Structure prediction request, 396 residues.
Amino acid sequence: MNYEQIKNEIEQIYTRMVDRRRRIHQHPELSFEEYDTTEYICSELRAMGITEIARPAKTGAAATIRGAFPGKTIALRADIDALPIQECNDLPFRSQNENVMHACGHDGHAAILLTAAELLHRHKAELHGTVICIFQHAEERAPGGAIDFYNAGLMRGVDELYGFHLSSTFPTGTFGLKDGVLTSATDRFDIRVIGKGGHSAIPETTIDPIVLGAQIILALQTVVSRRIRAFDSAVLSICAAHAGDVYNVIPDEMVLTGSLRTFSEQIRAQIPEMMEQIVSSIVKSAGGGYEFRFEKGYGSVVNDKELARNAERVLAALYGEKSILSIEPVTPGEDFSALQKDCPALFVEIGTADPNKGTDLPHHNAKYILDEEGLRYGLGYVLGMVFDSLKAITES
Prediction:
């Protein structure tokens, strides 16, 4: 198998891959509820002749393809869950499930990996090693589904792990590559500001939690701008603020909820303490109280340098050096990080942005459209990396 043959086989199976993506898109399911999606994936795998299928959790699956020769074990991961969004696109294959939509490309991820499994199974006589195809549930909702697969021992003995994300940030036909830290760690915080309610006409008899909450919201912005170095990156956002429900009553409390995104474990560990210091000083100065809860989410995805260099070589051979973009870290989180604890890993951003097709809208958007041309490149990346690593690439 050489690189031209890989591209030829992709063309021959492309329509089937698109059909798979559209079927999954029509029947989206939320995180931890991907029962129909999992059954569909397993039925497709069985139809290919793949029989070694594991179900380590209630949803999601993993298929193992054993090559004819001994060698490394490679894991490939695609996420399969959708989002709580009502689709606004007028497509013949639009979502049939109310208020649920594949608005982040996971339908494309699943279709790519399903089709990769079919071709890898077809060419298993050429493979020096084993491939585990992970169809992972619940990437969109903490604590995520990846930890279920990891805790079930699925990554035991894996030598290399590969993942990818179709992205409307980069042009179709390009690959966003970066070694080292790629994604932010994503954490949640909840702050309960406890005051003393009362009549709005006599606020001096109250401890107004809304005033205290407003001060906290503004003061927390100084954590990033004034408490950490300019060379370190962090994003601190207050995303929800709830207090009271009557126009003339000062409530007893206010609840603030937000997210913290960081790229350094050191900064990730320091910021919560800084935040609580600010909350404590503001609230106590007015005689109020507080509760501060910080919940760690997904860790950063960290790309292995050697695997990144291999990907540059493989993708250049497949699609030319101009297809490869050197990118900066991206702020969205990924629970792919839970799978890479024990082996080198590579996660690649695969471009699907084409303004002429309207596929450059942001993800998690009710009008998000996936450029299906990107599926070709996603499949090329997966097959190229596996065939190269498992010694199935020939010169001619």
Q: What stands out?
A: The chain has a mean pLDDT of 97. The two ends are 8 Å apart (CA to CA). Helices lie at 3-26, 35-48, 106-122, 146-151, 209-227, 265-285, 305-319, 373-389. DSSP finds eight helices and 16 strands in the chain.
